[in-house]
Amino acid sequence: MKKKxxxxxxxxxxxxxxxxxxxxxxxxxxxxDNANARFVELYNxxxxxxxxxxxxxxxxxxxxxxxxxxxxxxxxxxxNSTFVIATNATNFLAAYGFDADFISGxxxxxxxxxxxxxxxxxxxTGTMYDAYGVMNEDxxxxxxxxxxxxxxxxxxxxxxxxxxxxSEWAISSGGVADMTPGTHTVGTVTVPVISNIAILPTAPTxxxxxxxxxxxxxxxxxxxANLYWSLTSPVTTSDNATAMTNVVDVYSATIPAQADxxxxxxxxxxxDGSATTTSNEMSxxxxxxxxxxxxxxxxxxxxxxxxxTEYRLTGEAFITYQRASRNQKYIQDATGGILIDDNxxxxxxxxx
Length: 352
Description:
Elements: H1 2-19, E1 24-29, E2 39-44, E3 50-51, E4 57-63, E5 67-72, E6 76-77, E7 81-86, H2 89-96, E8 102-103, E9 114-119, E10 127-132, E11 149-153, E12 169-173, E13 193-200, E14 210-217, E15 224-230, E16 240-243, E17 245-247, E18 250-255, E19 263-271, E20 276-278, E21 282-285, E22 293-295, H3 298-302, E23 311-313, E24 318-323, E25 328-333, E26 336-340
Parallel strand pairs: 7-8, 22-23
Antiparallel strand pairs: 1-2, 1-11, 2-7, 3-6, 4-5, 4-9, 9-10, 11-12, 13-14, 14-18, 15-16, 15-19, 17-18, 19-20, 19-21, 24-25, 25-26
């Protein structure tokens, strides 16, 4: 009896240790453009390889919250690596360019089917180990539905969970090109850094298209950046969008010329495939230069604005005094006089 007890204790110790290893479902997929490219990805976040035959892992699918089917998994999930289960070897290779680790026809969830890991036996004899979806629930219209898309476990999750929890997952629509089998991140997520946002020209007029540029860097590859702009604030990703082009980490895109007086609001976002950074909203106002204003008398000139507007005196006036110091000249007509203080020497004409 003592020997049996020690054997049972040893089995429970191995079983408990296996649970602590943290193997979990990291991605489920239902590509909107290729149902034959469906897969489920597992991830081993530990520094130890996991032999799936130890403890007997079973992969299980529940169709529409009803029928359950399980298959025993074989193979090894390497440390800090993924293990991809595909519905069809040939189609998976054609879609993603590499071989899946395991093939099972049970990877046929069409967005409303749950996937589960069981250990120590199948869904009838084993213990649930991890879950995507809610057991005995049809996923149609539920928070965990992934129809024509995919769900990826968030990077701050490093252990399984038998209760599906929405905060652990990011669910998106997409096709084969959006899926990421064989790649998963756990731990600190690097994010794109957007800096040095600038416009050219810096003081745009109504005839100027405006080039918006920014430096965008990341510890991993930046996979895309977009410029959004609008004539109203706040600007959103639903407004005018333009993909930015990249030249050595400097991304740029162009906003078409706008009317004089228009205020243009804009922002930039950038993604590395797993994280997205959005800049603060910025703006500029289109301002056309004021033309030369003609005035007939010095009295009209004296009443003019002092905001940089250029004036041209069309009436007759006389220089009644001038001196070399500061290149000063005093001009007047019948309505008044004005002292021109030309210390910069802008006026080069000689007057008698």
